[in-house]
């Protein structure tokens, strides 16, 4: 994102205008935008040949692409990302769209799930995209946790709460996880879970990780001092204890035992890091975000975009999310305020019903 803003700031006015008009034209029509079309809309009078030269420069930078020989240009995923981050002009929700969204909240039923289902249907109709609605997070204590692998980069966490409520959440597990490691994580958490919320569990695991690091540091200190081992990258994710003079360890039983103890602690530390990451992914709530193309990991739909906004309770705590999924050429300037407006309404209504 910062890289995109830097590239924008380094462009001259003409390049920036050509880039903006190509992206806006593509988002409006879905078609490549040609140099002759741009000559009719540029703020300064400039030839088609000059515009083609600018387009070639933008293509070289990876911001535009030409789908066919001698055709116009379309933005790349990088170009769309840069446009959204630096040039997107977000409009207001139109009166017509506002009325349609507001009408969704007219019912008096206390069933939040039915309300959210209606919100999703209305959001889909208003935006002509698929809607995404994440129901409020449940804050009760957890009775049981289970992780289920759905593939190489998707997993399901099943949360059974003490009050009988059950939730399923899809997340991207840390890389390299297996069904066996997920079972181990679940078993470890279920031994700790009684009376605790997700937030409590994360805090407990964080304390465990800190304690393990302190144990490793203390044990390693003497070995490093003796020259038998070298401590590399201390404090980083990739820290390693590099063993020197291994032949001496065959004679020194105490040192060998220390190394075995450190290896065990490292294994335990890695397991707890993985578990902490599971919990973070399970509980995480994103801020207002736009995911374009292959950034949209939730559904692995490289040709789609996701505009998603959290909604919050009265304490400004994220409890769920509302979003729209569509092609990468979404009308972002229109969709973003619609999603944001809907999320704010849902947050207020869910909070009000919670008080009731």
Provide the fold topology.
Layout lengths: L1 H9 L2 H17 L5 H5 L8 H13 L3 E2 L8 E2 L1 H10 L8 H9 L8 H16 L2 E5 L7 E8 L5 E7 L4 E6 L7 H14 L5 H28 L3 E4 L7 E4 L2 H6 L1 H31 L5 E4 L11 E9 L5 E10 L4 H24 L1
Antiparallel strand pairs: 1-2, 3-11, 4-5, 5-6, 7-8, 9-10, 10-11
Helix pairs in contact: 2-4, 6-12, 7-12, 8-11, 9-11
What's the short story on this structure?
With 356 residues, the chain is of the alpha+beta class.
Characterize the structure shown.
With 356 residues, this protein is an alpha+beta fold. It folds into 3 domains: 2-86, Winged helix-like DNA-binding domain superfamily/Winged helix DNA-binding domain (Arc Repressor Mutant, subunit A); 95-136 and 313-355, no CATH class; 142-283. It has 12 helices and 11 strands. The chain has a 4-stranded antiparallel sheet with strand order 3-11-10-9. The chain has a 3-stranded antiparallel sheet with strand order 4-5-6. Strands 1-2 form a two-stranded antiparallel sheet. The protein is flat and about 75 Å long. The model is unreliable at 237-241 and 243-252 (pLDDT under 50). One of its GO terms (biological process) is negative regulation of DNA-templated transcription. One of its GO terms (molecular function) is DNA binding. Belongs to the HrcA family.
